[in-house]
Design goal:
The protein has 895 residues and is mainly beta. It contains six helices and 54 strands. Helices cover 6% and strands 41% of the residues.
């Protein structure tokens, strides 16, 4: 078997093929995911040898053609030719395919749109998929997009965005390569319109309804002249929605639901590098920008950290025994913790003209400013690093009875508005009027104070002569005893200026009040505060001055983003650190993000959700596979032990105790705990033979609430007491079984495989496994891949109304009398729990490892009589009276 193994290195920003320099005397060995017996996913690795007789891979040798161009962490990638082409999209607005407007595309009534993509369906940022949506308002017809696990269909009857309608439906978990179908019935016959959404494995698959929504009033779609694009950029007043990142396989647009196909771009059969083609509906498609038609299936994107040259003094056999690593290696090299979420949010948000975080160490005597040209805040009476209880901040200072702070705000262009903000904590209502903040401006109110007193908080403005020009008094609700974000603003309207005070309790309510006077806002010139004795022990931090009054820069960051989903946190951290992350659909809610190393923060998300964070093959980036993506997933690869090469020896179970954990405790960071213990099962804490003895385990997870801990502990207990044997490795000889190559190329971390027809000395099949990692060895024409696996059965969970997955286990059913190995009638006794159903046969039961199909169950009291088909799984045996009966696939509730 011959296959095209390509090796490319990025030199001076350009991918260059170096396959002819890769020695075939040594294989290319690629490792990804979790290795056998490892507890966590490590960096991917690739080992290979390069011919270096012309010194081109000696970056420090002036004789090298690549002198100065190669160095630590040079990008490298390995790929083979896949079975079909696809359009690789980058997410940039210019990198798309399009077909010009045509009369057949001017659909004003019912429409049916279908796309088959490889994409991150749950990315929090909006991604457009397909549409006739011009960049010019007034020429907008329809658009399909996804955002944060929801699919939106947008259309305009007039071509104007202001008149557009939209409907959205939540997506279930979708494999990365999936097809979705959206239909719009503009007149459903009941005086309204209906939007429906379907899913399938591909455009050729069977469509299943996800959901439908509708509203009163018939509608229509504007007949515009915009091109049909995959995918247009949608610009709104609040954001720019860019095309999806991933692969387009094919798409269809139909006039009418299930109607005439008017566009059908199918990339699968296009030539590599094609820039245009005509589809089966007659539409001419053109590739634009950096979008590319390719068939490359990447096995690894990595980085070469060093180029060690080896040879002898005679200059013979000069080569480089190179090793490349995935991005996790580089990310793990840094030791510096990321700053607090407030510090990371500022100065990126709000465009501050002055900002002092006050997150200094305990020996500091001033407040540093991260803004160029802003002098430090001079302070007296501050004890730095005294309080670390604000979730979004590193430790902040508390002040003494004689505290003061002064800082100059550099001159900035006036905008007719300003905003002064800080985070503060006062333990109790002060006994008298207490100054909490004072600053100066060039406006009508030259000096402004913010004070607290019994029952009130006040913002008072004074003119140049010291006279009061406004007073805002608010009842002191929730102000004390909490961390609070204080926002003091001014904004001009005509000849007046509106002053407002707003405070928001972290994770709590907001309060606001204001006053309007004739005058101007001016600009803020200084922070100048003598706090006074009654302010002693107050905590303060993140003092900022902003040129706009309508920004709330501290919101969300103040609580450390507590309560955001694990996927949103992964996506946000990836965006902040410029690391591509496909974040999956993990809905577990996280606790506060405290300062820590990036990989630790990413790992917290995976640990809380019980998913897997690993490296992408298609680019230098990360992917997250959420816990719920493992539930009831389809089979990605089937291997037959009777087929040559499909299951190469050895196939050995590991019936050991490596993963047994029958006493699990989960503790929330800074919170309470939940515990789950198996006290009676075959893997319980009971001593053998009733159980296996205690195997305890504890985890501390960064969760949002205490109530999350116990359910997670019970799911971990379920995983730790699962009874299937492990098959740590499964070897596939692709040279002997080349028909498996397309499925193996699509196989990725977390996918489910199934092995059928195992040898009789193993338990009866099929053997269901999850791929946790793999090692592949490529030296054409040989190609071996060894999968590192774990049992898949634990991920089968209950589905309401499913004939198989909705059947709960029974704790009290046994055989009322013994049976031979061929008996087709069983007497079933049920001592506890409900009787067996007599209305929804057939269903499978299991007795002593034998799977038996119940074709008829009769009787309204115990014992019942079952007519059965024996030995469904190949086990032929007799059973004694009292043998325990279970459903073959008992329903288990998902976490």
């Amino acid at each position: 078997m011959a296959y095209d193994l390509r090796t490319e290195v990025q030199i001076a920003g350009v991918w260059s093929t170096i396959s002819n320099h890769v020695y075939t005397r040594a294989p290319v060995v690629i490792e990804r995911g979790r290795r056998e017996e490892d507890s966590a996913v490590g960096p991917s690795k690739a080992r290979f040898q390069l011919n270096n007789r012309d010194f081109r891979y000696s970056p420090d040798n002036p004789r090298s053609a690549n002198y100065g161009l190669l160095g630590p962490n040079t990008p490298i990638r390995f790929s083979v030719a896949g079975p079909e082409s696809y359009l690789a999209t980058t997410g940039a607005s210019a990198d798309i395919i399009a077909t010009p407007d045509h009369s057949s595309l001017d659909i004003v009534g019912d429409i049916d749109v279908r796309v088959e993509l490889t994409a991150d369906w749950n990315r929090p940022a909006a991604q457009t998929l397909i549409g006739k949506w011009s960049s010019i308002d007034g020429n907008r017809s329809w658009l399909m997009r996804i955002v944060n696990g929801q699919l939106y269909f947008v259309w305009s009857p007039t071509g104007l965005s202001a008149d557009a309608f939209f409907a959205f439906i939540n997506l279930p978990y979708l494999p990365r390569r999936s097809a979705v179908r959206a239909t719009l019935d503009v007149n459903n016959g009941s005086g309204g319109w209906t939007f429906s959404l379907y899913k399938a494995a591909s455009l050729s698959g069977t469509w299943s309804l996800i959901g439908s929504v509708g509203f009163a009033g018939v509608t229509s779609i504007f007949s515009g002249t915009a091109a049909l694009q995959i995918a247009p950029t949608q610009v709104t007043t609040s954001e720019t929605r860019l095309p999806f990142v991933g692969r387009l396989h094919r798409a269809e647009v139909r006039s009418g639901i299930g109607g005439t196909v008017v566009a059908s771009p199918d990339v699968r059969g296009q030539a590599v590098g094609a820039t245009s083609w005509v589809d089966s509906a007659g539409r001419a498609w053109t590739v634009a920008g950096a979008a590319t038609v390719t068939n490359r299936e990447y096995r690894l994107h990595a980085e070469v950290s060093s180029w060690p040259t080896r040879g002898d003094v005679a200059g013979r056999d000069i080569h480089v025994p190179a090793e490349a690593s995935g991005i996790l290696r580089r990310l793990g090299q840094g030791k510096k913790a990321l700053d607090s979420t407030l510090r990371r949010r500022l100065p990126a948000v709000g465009a501050p003209v002055a900002y002092w975080p006050l997150e200094e160490g305990k020996d500091a005597v001033q407040g540093y400013s991260p803004l160029p040209g802003v002098a430090p805040l001079s302070v007296t009476g501050f004890t730095f690093a005294a309080d670390d209880t604000l979730p979004g901040s590193s430790s902040l200072p508390k002040i003494s009875a004689a505290a003061a702070m002064r800082g100059v705000v550099p001159t900035y262009p006036g905008t007719g508005q300003w905003h002064v903000a800080y985070m503060g904590y006062t333990q109790a209502t002060p006994a008298g009027v207490t100054k909490l903040l004072e600053f100066t401006t060039t406006g009508t109110a030259r000096r402004i104070t913010f004070t607290a007193q019994p029952g009130l908080v006040e913002m008072i403005g004074y003119n140049a002569a010291g006279g009061t020009v406004f007073t805002i008094s608010l009842v002191e609700s929730d102000f004390n005893g909490h961390w609070t974000g204080v926002d003091l603003t001014a904004a001009e309207t005509g000849g007046n200026v509106r002053y407002e005070v707003n405070w928001t309790v972290v994770n709590g309510p907001s309060y606001v009040g204001g006053a309007t006077i004739a005058g101007t806002a001016g600009i803020v010139t200084s922070i100048d505060t003598n706090f006074g004795a009654l302010a002693a022990d107050m905590r303060i931090g993140h003092v900022g001055v902003f040129p706009s009054s309508d920004t709330l820069p501290y919101r969300l960051g103040d609580n450390g983003w507590r309560g955001e989903s694990a996927s949103n946190r992964l996506d946000r951290l990836g965006t902040e650190e410029s690391i591509p992350i496909e974040a999956g659909n993990a809905a577990i809610f996280m606790g506060a993000q405290r300062p820590d190393k990036l990989l630790t923060l990413l790992g917290e998300c995976a640990a809380a959700d019980l998913g897997v964070l690993y490296e992408s093959r298609d680019r230098l980036g990360l992917m997250y596979r959420s816990r719920n993506s493992f539930y009831n997933q389809g089979i990605a690869l089937t291997l037959d032990c009777n087929a040559p090469g499909e299951v190469a020896p050895p196939l050995l179970p590991a019936p050991d105790d490596q993963r047994i954990r029958n006493d699990r405790t989960v503790t929330r960071v800074g919170g309470s705990s939940g515990r789950a213990v198996d006290e009676t099962g075959p893997r319980s804490i009971q001593p053998p033979p009733a159980g296996v003895g205690p195997y305890d385990d504890s985890r501390t997870l960064n969760l949002d609430t205490d109530s999350q801990a116990e359910p997670i502990a019970y799911w971990l207990l379920h995983m730790g007491t699962w009874g299937e044997a492990r098959y740590p490795t499964v070897r596939i000889n692709l040279a002997a079984a080349p028909h498996l190559i397309p499925a193996v190329l699509a196989l990725d971390i977390g996918d489910r495989i199934q092995i059928v027809n195992p040898p009789t000395w193993l338990p009866p099949g099929p053997i269901d496994l999850i791929v946790e990692g793999y090692t592949e060895t490529l030296r054409p024409p040989s190609w071996d891949i060894v999968l590192n696996c774990s049992p898949a059965g634990m991920w089968t969970v209950a589905v309401l109304d499913d004939p198989l997955l909705a059947r709960p286990d029974t704790a009290g059913s046994t055989l009322a009398s013994g049976v031979t190995s061929t008996a087709t009638t069983l007497s079933v006794a049920t001592s506890t729990g409900p009787l067996w159903s007599t209305t929804d046969e057939p269903y499978d039961i299991k007795i002593g490892g034998e799977v038996i199909t119940v074709t008829t169950m009769t009787g309204t009291s115990s014992p019942q009589t079952a007519t059965v088909t024996r030995s469904v799984n190949g086990i032929v045996k007799a059973h004694s009276s009292g043998a325990v009966i279970h459903p073959s696939q008992p329903a288990r509730a998902a976490l």
